[in-house]
Specification:
With 444 residues, the protein is of the alpha+beta class. It folds into two domains: 205 residues, PmbA/TldD fold, CATH 3.30.2290.10; 231 residues, no CATH class. The protein has ten helices and 20 strands. Strands 8, 9, 10, 11, 12, 13, 16, 17, 19 and 20 form a ten-stranded mixed beta sheet that branches. The longest helix has 19 residues. It is globular. 44% of the residues are buried.
Amino acid sequence: MLDDLRDSFESLARTTQSLLHGGESFELNLHGEDSEFVRLNRGAVRQAGSVVQRTLSLDLAEGKRHAAGTLRLSGDPGADRQRVAALVRELRAQRDELPEDPWLLSPDEPLSSERVVTSALPERDEVLDRLVAAGRERDLVGLYASGPVVQAFASSRGQRNWFVCPSFNLDWSFHLEADRAVKASYAGTRWDGAAFSARLERACDELALLARPTRHLPPGRYPVYLAPDAVAELMGLLSWGGFGLRALRTKTSPLLRMVEAGEAFHETVTIAEDTAAGTAPDFQEQGFRRPERVPLVEAGKYRASLVSPRSAVEFDAATNGATSQESPLSLDVAAGDVPTDDVLRRLGSGIHVSNLHYLNYSDRIRCRATGMTRFACFAVEGGERVAPIGVLRFDDTLFRMLGANLIGLTRERETILDPGTYGGRSVGSTRVPGALVDDVAFTL
């Protein structure tokens, strides 16, 4: 089926080429997926099905004027060619009414590529049988998605890029009562039954702990273990303008003080955009190639920005294939040297934070963040989790949490795929360790 899709995309690229007038050029993007979806609730399968969709995006340019539009492909070659021809006529009429775009940039040299991520996806029934068995006599709710995601690029300059990444993403929760729940996930490109069993067992253990009486901790400063899911939430917030050149040059980056005032993270903190190890394509929507790895923060210090083609023109810099949002798609935080099995003993007494939500900046320029604890978070005493805690709000700077107050990062890391499916399955991924942090400020 994917071979047929590739042939169809190439045919549509040739069709578009044949429709050009004079000095026109085009850039064509394909986003497709062949996905299996299963929804579960109260420990049983409630909905199962499949989604096959292909979306074509066309940007038609002449000089510095351009207009873009999208359409859903039907799979009927003749009908799709007619719809592309109609889209070209519509965009040509729109473009003639638009002003020139001063930040428009296309690759000087067409660089074609092909990347198909090797994978070993599980059988759907195997996943569901084990999950339903674990959810027996428990209130389990979740979503399972699996299958290949395809992205492709073609241009009038002859450039062709093809990317396929088959992946699975199982995102579920055990709900106890009221606001008490344990959230868990397992995702990737290669299924490991033993790793899945370990995730299930860990979630069941936390559910048993969650049944204990809740302990309501007063506001104050506590030592904390941030599980990888919680660290991923902090990285997601930091990615909101933290690594883009535009935010840096317009003085809105939360890492501005790292660049201009000497602030730094702990020397063990290294953050990169690791395209080679991620599940996102190695090219972006204008056809610029994305390097295998872009170091963003090395040994606690700012190293490089993500630079979109538009920012490259506006700020006279070289692009490194970033998307227009200039946010990481394959974020990688280097591992530390603390064994995960030893984190609670190292923590001693404090708080085990499994997850965070409602994150935002309380002081963006000082990289001060706020958010709420979520799901199964526990009070720790003597190196043991002793009771679930009531919801707390933290408010602290990431320069403290990932800097002077960072005790250590775990040796083991988790790969977390973005479970988003709005309009199509996301290709974003994050690979993060857990973090031991001292003296985190909780305000209420």
